[in-house]
Amino acid sequence: MALCIRSRSWRSPTRPGPLWTVQKQIRTPYQRAWTLKQPFSSFPRLSNHQPPAFAQYPGPISGAPLAAVTRPPKVTIYGTGGTIAGSAASAGQTTGYKSGVISVGELIKAVPELSKAADLNAKQIISVGSPDIPEGLLVHMSQQIQKELDSDTTQGVVITHGTDTIEETAFWLDLTVKTDKPIVLVGSMRPATAHSADGPMNLLCAVKLAASECARKRGVMIVLNDRICSPRFTTKTNANSLDTFKAEEQGFLGCFVDSQPVFYYPPCRPLSHHYYFNVAGWDVKQGLPDVDILFGHLGLRQELFQAAVKSDADGIVLAGMGSGCWLTDAGEAISKYIKENDFPVVASRRTPWGYVGGTKNYGLGDSCIGGGFLDPQKCRILLQLCLAADLGNGAIRAIFESNKPGSHATVPKFREFKIESTP
């Protein structure tokens, strides 16, 4: 029922003229409260006997117009285990803990702010320490993530992962998932039970990055310690420190300020990223080609290369000294085997950064494929995909050495290689 208050009339002591009237009409308790709170000057002055004009009010709660509802972007989180899901016996323990014992759902519940950042969909695909992630799972992850991101409703994907092999999984996904949407891998250096555990903040940053429109067309990214990293050039440099992931020569893509992503450059991809391996038709059960890594050092026995070949290795990566150097006697034996058998061998380096070409390598000559700026573990991933795509040594060399000095006059045409299971 409407409530009316009798109007009051008065003559202004400072302004001669007719009487002025203020009328207030209050229809509901909510409107009454709103009206009585208004300053006196907000009411219109009316002459006597003029039809009343009432102060504007927002209307009853049930009838007030609602602001447009903006739904948070949809982000899918895949859990794989790792330190970020680890648990230790005490809060001060940061080594010797159990990895992958906390579910991705529990990780999300531990960070309430995540629900404000995105509409989350959690999927636990495995829960192990990252050294135990099966290679066949990489194919399965690529297939599932490709389907997820092909959906119009999904903005991005986050993968919780152990830091020991996070760069390998990230590089794999960068080569096998074709999308403009962000794929973010995140881990931690301290278990979830530790004092000042870094996992919750890393996860919050990763979700906000995956939900950001600014993260599109940048490929797969790694998030740790307020850094946004490219998997092609980033590597883990310290077994214990929070600030472990580095890309000394190429640098980071961006950082986080107040858990919000800040990029240093417009969206772009590395010059050497001009190929994509379509694994949609690859049967996970068939496994990946076997590629071994040999680590160069003083006194290296040349029999190790022959042992790898005899154990049915499909290819070999050499983590050479300096810029891919190898012992002369062992290198001559390797070069001879390559020429006689057209066997794929990629020369890389054991140093954290640097370039390794395919010609005039000490001890190896021109026999090996140059790994370029890729470290041994990433050379191995790329060589596995090339072999699975049934590429010959010439085509493999062209892919690996596309970023060699003087090759940037023109950007290579983007190519797609399809990997399908043979019947």
Automatic annotation (TrEMBL):
It comes from the Eukaryota. It is an enzyme of class 3 (hydrolase). Its EC number is 3.5.1.1. It catalyses: L-asparagine + H2O = L-aspartate + NH4(+). Pfam families: Asparaginase, Asparaginase_C. GO terms for molecular function: asparaginase activity. InterPro entries: AsnASE_II, Asp/glu_Ase-like_sf, Asparaginase/glutaminase-like, Asparaginase/glutaminase_AS1, Asparaginase/glutaminase_AS2, Asparaginase_C, L-asparaginase_C, L-asparaginase_N. Substrate binds at residues 130, 163-164. One of its GO terms (biological process) is L-asparagine catabolic process. Residues 74-266 form the L-asparaginase N-terminal domain. The keyword Acetylation does not apply. Residues 290-400 form the Asparaginase/glutaminase C-terminal domain. The active site is at 83, 83 (o-isoaspartyl threonine intermediate), 163. SUPFAM superfamilies: Glutaminase/Asparaginase. Keywords: Hydrolase. Belongs to the asparaginase 1 family. This is asparaginase. It comes from Tolypocladium ophioglossoides (strain CBS 100239) (Snaketongue truffleclub).
